[in-house]
Amino acid sequence: MASLDFMKSLQFAAQKHSKQRRKDPEGTPYVNHVINVCTNLVEAGIEDEAVLMAALLHDVVEDTDTTVGDVEQLFGTDVASLVHEVTDDKSLEKAERKRLQIVNAARSTRRANLIKLADKLDNLRDLQINTPHGWTEERREEYFVWAKQVVDNLRGTNEQLERELDEIFSQRNLL
Ligand SMILES: Nc1nc2c(ncn2[C@@H]2O[C@H](COP(=O)(O)OP(=O)(O)O)[C@@H](OP(=O)(O)OP(=O)(O)O)[C@H]2O)c(=O)[nH]1
Ligand SMILES: [Mn+2]
After folding, report:
1. What does this protein do (predicted)?
2. Is the ipTM of this complex over 0.90?
């Protein structure tokens, strides 16, 4: 059964992302993405509740007014440090952020890496179907190539997630 802590993290993510939409043509509510990331982890057999809660909260610091301190107060240090690990520093240039994701993939904790794999899996599944609003075909192609570099540094984390990602990469002739 879902715990109250788990439901509170879903409720918090839904509130914080309530005015945000994905960049797909339908403008899917942003919260659908974080639910998909969490579902990817459950499907891969992950039962670690802090990891599942951090998956639901993985974009609240990066993309809303929430701080890591807020997450810590509400959900504790374990969840907050996982969210911190999967949060890009938005004060950096985009190219630097992209480079750091590749570098940091190799040195973050296994639990944070699970969330990173599940996040990439959802974004790539989406990119297989849609070109996000405002993206060129080239930018879409580049995302697959960059995501493969990130995922290559996350290998050995979870067989099922990596297998599903590899199916996508092989369809794109990147394997
Ligand atoms: N595929 C896809 N992505 C969308 C969509 N709407 C929003 N995004 C978000 O866009 C980000 C990927 O686009 P980028 O060009 O790398 O980043 P940007 O948003 O900062 O410009 C992802 O952020 P992220 O979750 O932080 O992931 P990542 O950048 O760490 O991979 C993804 O969640 C959509 O409809 N499809
Ligand atoms: Mn995400």
Report:
1. ppGpp hydrolyzing enzyme involved in starvation response.
2. yes
